[in-house]
Design brief:
The chain has 262 residues and is of the alpha/beta class. It has one domain: Collagenase (Catalytic Domain). A 6-stranded mixed sheet has the order 1-2-6-5-4-3. The structure holds zinc ion. The site of zinc ion has 6 residues, from helix 6 and helix 8.
Length: 262
């Protein structure tokens, strides 16, 4: 087998081969839609992710090496500019089979943060959740579907990684660690957009919202949901909350160029 091209860039034994990486790129419109430099960055970050994190399938789920690599690559999308320091503070990914697609989030089910500061998405059947310092929990059925066929506004592991970045400064509040001046602008612009979405829903709880109304649940959900739009429906985000979209382009880099409706 040929020497993997990223080998010179990374000190440890690579977690995957060049062929395995190419298969993930071929199977993922989001990764394919990145520029060449960002694809190379994602490969390095995914390698780091696989060295750092224990990915544990639950129940009878079996994850092939290629599935683990695809999971890692998409989890690292939010780290394209932030870098591998965004992986600190936690070590486990628990993956449930998620035998059917649970859509409660689309119907505005409540989120909660319990006493352990676990963010839960939805109520009973959970697509994902993120512990402030503990494991990331994912539904493979949902993630796998969104990897193969990106759906505008939805990317489960991007959402959960946004929570991880948010929590890095010890406060799950919709603001990741940023230079002070940028953080003030971020808080002002995200706050205004969050208030505007909530004003719309306060006036009419059944209102058509420009983005998933789940974003109105809390500032940290607003950041996580807008992060999903950045990667899968950037045009919707730019048209709706241009200041938020600009912050996310600065924070995450340019979104993938997608051949899907957005
Ligand atoms: Zn969330």
């Amino acid at each position: 087998m040929a020497q993997p091209w990223w080998r010179r860039l990374w000190r440890a034994e690579p977690a995957f081969t060049a062929d395995e990486w190419q298969a993930v790129v071929d199977g993922s419109p989001l990764i394919r839609g990145l520029g060449a430099d960002d694809q190379a960055r994602i490969a390095r970050l995914a390698d780091r992710f696989l060295h750092d994190k224990a990915i544990t399938p639950a129940h009878d789920l079996v994850l092939a090496p290629r599935d683990r690599l695809a999971l890692a690559a998409h989890a690292c999308l939010p780290l394209l500019r932030f870098g591998e320091s965004g992986l600190r503070g936690w070590s486990q990914v628990i993956v449930h089979p998620g035998a059917f697609r649970v859509d409660h989030r689309r119907h505005g089910a409540p989120h909660e943060i319990d006493e352990l500061e676990v963010v839960h998405e939805g109520t009973e059947d959970r697509e994902g959740e993120s512990w402030k310092y503990g494991p990331m929990v994912l539904s493979w059925a949902d993630l796998d579907a969104e990897i193969r066929e990106p759906e505008p506004g939805y990317q489960l592991v991007v959402h959960e990684m946004a929570h991880k970045l948010d929590a890095l400064d010890g406060l799950l509040d919709g603001t990741p660690p940023l230079p002070a001046a940028w953080q003030r602008e971020w808080a002002r612009d995200f706050g205004a957009a969050f208030e505007s979405l909530n004003a719309l829903l306060d006036a009419d709880p059944d209102a058509e919202t420009p983005i998933d109304p789940y974003a109105a649940e809390a500032p940290e959900e607003f950041f996580a949901v807008c992060s999903e739009y950045h990667f899968t429906a950037p045009d919707v985000l730019r048209a709706t909350y241009p200041a938020v979209a600009a912050h996310l382009e600065r924070f995450y880099g340019p979104p993938p160029r997608l051949a899907i409706a957005g």
